[in-house]
Design goal:
Radius of gyration: 19 Å
Number of strands: 0
Distance between the termini: 43 Å
Shape: globular
Largest sheet: none
Low-confidence stretches: none
Mean pLDDT: 88
Structural class: mainly alpha
Number of domains: 1
Number of helices: 13
Helix content: over 70%
Strand content: under 5%
Length: 296
């Protein structure tokens, strides 16, 4: 049992990173095809990570600046352990959704503290935008979680996926909550029109403006984990997980490709417009979904 748990402790993050990096690769290629370009080498994101991690010497602005990417990556890895994967579950306790709500915030706060120590105005503006946007999409996300907890009478994410395997996907029974959930997922991924925090034409990638070398390599790894976390969480909450890892990945891939198409046709929101949007339409949909569950 101990050996099995050790293997899962190593294998689950590797699997999550692998899925995340593959989706990053597909994103570059799909966007290039939409724009009628050949695009970069398929494995270019992986090459970039190895190149950045192999660089010698890093510019530093202080201890927290160095620790920010490390803490953010560590928080993402911990979150991965709470998300059920077909055939593997390591830390799916009785209150894992509640734990997720807390742990998922740690990475954003770590990046805010780390990038803030650089004293770069673009980083500060990007941090302010990112935290403001997080306040926007966290409200409908919490309402969606409450709706699912009331629907299935449990806070255990693994139990929720198992109950959907027998009764059907939650997205068919809670369509309004599912729509709110996919919009929240879209915003959390930072795609158009919600990429206000890293807008390269305005704030030069925002919080990451001062990061380079190994720091930037860690942030790219963290971004791969972030893609996996957001998509896997939606699949588990609304699409019943999957019976095997290939089916699980297929669901994630379909959702990701649909989001990429929206990414290519929508212009960027201003941060106040983005928050106003989240506090209006997704929140209204999430509240309606909650009311339907309470009435039933």
């Amino acid at each position: 049992m101990v050996i099995k748990e050790i293997l899962m402790a190593v294998g689950i993050p590797l699997l999550a990173f692998s899925i995340g990096i593959v989706l990053m690769m597909f994103k570059r290629k799909i966007i290039a095809r939409i724009q009628r370009r050949y695009g970069p080498n398929f494995v270019q994101p992986l090459i970039d990570i190895f190149k950045l991690l192999s660089k010698k010497g890093n510019i530093t602005h202080g201890v927290m600046y160095d620790l920010g990417p490390i803490i953010a990556l560590a928080a993402s890895i911990v979150v991965v352990f709470f998300i059920p994967i077909p055939g593997m579950k390591l830390m799916t306790g009785s209150a894992d959704i509640i734990a997720l709500l807390y742990i998922m915030v740690i990475g954003s706060l770590a990046m805010a503290l780390g990038a803030g120590e650089s004293a770069n105005p673009n980083s500060s503006i990007g941090i302010a935008r990112a935290l403001t946007l997080m306040l926007g999409y966290d409200l409908p996300f919490v309402i969606v979680i409450i709706t699912l907890v009331l629907k299935y009478h449990t806070t255990n994410l693994y139990v929720i996926t198992q109950m959907q395997a027998s009764s059907g996907w939650a997205m068919w029974f809670l369509p309004l909550s599912a729509i709110a959930g996919i919009i929240v997922t879209y915003g959390a991924l930072g795609e158009h029109p919600f990429d206000v925090a890293v807008a390269p034409h305005e704030v030069a990638t925002g919080p990451m403006a001062e990061y380079g070398g190994k720091h930037l390599g860690l942030l790219m790894i963290n971004h791969a984990f972030h893609i996996y976390i957001e998509l896997a969480l939606f699949v588990d909450l609304f699409m019943g997980g999957a019976s095997n890892i290939f089916y699980f990945f297929a669901k994630m891939f379909v959702i990701f490709v649909l989001l990429i198409f929206f990414d290519e046709v929508l212009p960027r929101f201003r941060v106040d417009d983005a928050v106003r949007f989240y506090w209006r339409w997704p929140t209204i949909l999430a509240l309606l979904g909650l009311i339907i569950v309470l009435v039933k």
